[in-house]
Amino acid sequence: AEALAPEPAGPVLTPTDLFQSSSKSGLVSQLSASQRAAMATDLKALILVGGYGTRLRPLTLSCPKPLVEFANIPMIVHQIQALKSAGVNEVVLAINYQPEVMHNFINEWQEKLGVKIVCSQEKEPMGTAGPLALARHLLDDGQGKPFFVLNSDVICEYPLKEMLDFHIARNAEATILVTKVDDPTKYGVVVMDEYGQVQRFVEKPKDFVGDKINAGIYVCSSKVLNRIELRPTSIEREVFPHIAADNRLYAYTLGGYWMDVGQPKDYLKGLRLHLDSQRIYKSHTLAKGPEYSGNVLVDPTAKIGPGCLIGPDVSIGAGCVIGAGVRLSNCVIMKGVAIKDHSKVDHCIVGWYSRVGAWSRLENYCVLGEDVQCKDELYMNGAVILPHKEIKESVPQPAIIL
Fold first, then answer.
1. How far apart, in whole angstroms, are the C-alpha atoms of residue 64 and residue 51?
2. Suppose 144 and one of 15, 32, 35, 202 were both cysteines; which one would form an S-S bond, judging by CB atoms 3.0 to 4.6 Å apart?
3. Which residues pair with 7 in a beta bridge?
């Protein structure tokens, strides 16, 4: 058999050269595979962490939303793991809330993840574009490589490598991850052509113009930074429309699941979608045994009593103690929780180190904050309970317990 000839090296181009042309074919078509590979290594990313997480209270009264566990690890860790797999080696966290807690997170997780993590602290809320201008010196090192931008409460299968390849191949200035929805009239719709080039945005259209919406994850060239002023501003409303007008904005369609998990109902739905995905791609991570029904994630340090029925769509965190005959379904049991014998929890989130008494029943999207102590034989219907409370009586109707 003939030996394959080596691939031509192609013209010598720096990453900055890649973004000098605005044509669709541009310089990208001249890049060799090795040059494209160089564009997709040692990348940077910014995660929009700022915000008080009010929709996910009372959990966010104890820690910032990105550090709330999702499937037993902080939400933001799922994103950083995906970024590392896509060639990112430095992540910037844009923060303005509880900075000391974020620094503790960095100290704990930076070495575990093998990614450099730094903070860019806002003195005032800067929106979704302002943080990029504030962190410009961290994102743009002069090499002209693209970088990722993520909203911290987005959960999906993170096709970041494929999205990056799409971005580079089209010589885009920015690429938006979009996801298909059944009812686009509730959202801002991204209208694009068959090549993925974004033509315009339509807010809550009455007539059908498309069914793709912004999924909150972007790839940007360093040139995007030249469009952003150092002030509170929105990348979706004040930056992307101008890039689209210059025919440099593209959209990459997400194939798998997507969910903004910023509020309890969506958090639980997101867990269900995530566990469905785990069943397909990482089934070895799910619990197995006669006490489990459907997709269940259990930390190895949790203790499960005899006669339980757990699942579907449940995650149980580190150090939890689940008593005998407990029934858990569609719920999140966070680190250190104790659920006493013969209790039932359905469609609820039980926060860190809380206690659910024996023969109790929790349902209808109860959310217990950190260290909530519930006595035996209580019925909780849609109760939202702030941290460090002792509950001695049932809550038969949805209520906030201050």
1. 8
2. 15
3. none
